[in-house]
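Exercise 7b. Backbone tokens:
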């Protein structure tokens, strides 16, 4: 049995965690666990959606795969010693240590990214660089056993790669079809390089309007 741990916290971005979950739990022989410092319900970044972490870090001490979701920078547990220690401990023995969106900042705060190239949400590139990482505009990037994805929905892409690594390409393709992941958005505005300044500015406003939840 391959165990995947997704550590959550108040203010995490829901799709950062749920996207990878939908991919990985469909692979035969894979069990996905939502974990946190203490077991319980955690608020997503809208302040309303709740996801349960039924087990704490100590109950899943050495998962095979770690998938760290992100959220607004103000909501990330960047100074939470227990959270960062868990990342460090798991990384020592994991097959793959991965992040989605600003989850890369948590890997950086844990000290495991210095000197690497990396990606995260476009609005957090400067934050990522502060951890000694060279930010790159890629949907996802793999360096050894560390895999980082760009913002939110990119976690589906990166975890299809994880699915292929854990099983094989045929299984990953079957999972992709199972979730009917065949994006055909009505607008070509899904990256900062494609969007107009007006759209970029509005996207920042929408994001910054989300509540601060880390202390709840």
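Sequence design result:
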């Amino acid at each position: 049995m391959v165990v995947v741990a997704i550590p959550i916290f108040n203010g995490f971005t829901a799709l950062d965690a749920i996207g990878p979950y939908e991919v990985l739990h469909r692979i035969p022989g894979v069990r996905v666990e939502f974990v946190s410092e203490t077991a319980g319900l955690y608020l997503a970044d809208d302040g309303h959606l709740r996801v349960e972490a039924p087990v704490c870090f100590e109950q899943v001490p050495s998962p095979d795969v770690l998938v760290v979701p992100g959220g607004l920078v103000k909501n990330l547990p960047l100074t939470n010693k227990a959270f960062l220690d868990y990342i460090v401990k798991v990384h020592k023995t994991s097959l793959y240590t991965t992040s989605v969106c600003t989850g890369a900042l948590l890997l950086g705060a844990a000290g495991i990214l210095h000197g690497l190239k990396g990606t995260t949400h476009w609005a957090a590139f400067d934050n990522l660089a502060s951890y000694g990482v060279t930010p790159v505009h890629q949907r996802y990037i793999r360096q050894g056993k560390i895999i980082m994805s760009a913002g939110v929905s990119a976690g589906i892409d990166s975890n299809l790669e994880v699915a292929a690594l854990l099983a094989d390409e045929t299984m990953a393709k079957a999972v992709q079809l199972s979730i009917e992941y065949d994006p055909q958005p009505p607008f070509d505005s899904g990256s900062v390089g494609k969007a107009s300044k007006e759209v970029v500015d509005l996207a920042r406003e929408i994001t910054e309007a989300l509540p601060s939840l880390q202390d709840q």
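Instructor comment: The chain has one domain: 2-208. The chain has a mean pLDDT of 97.
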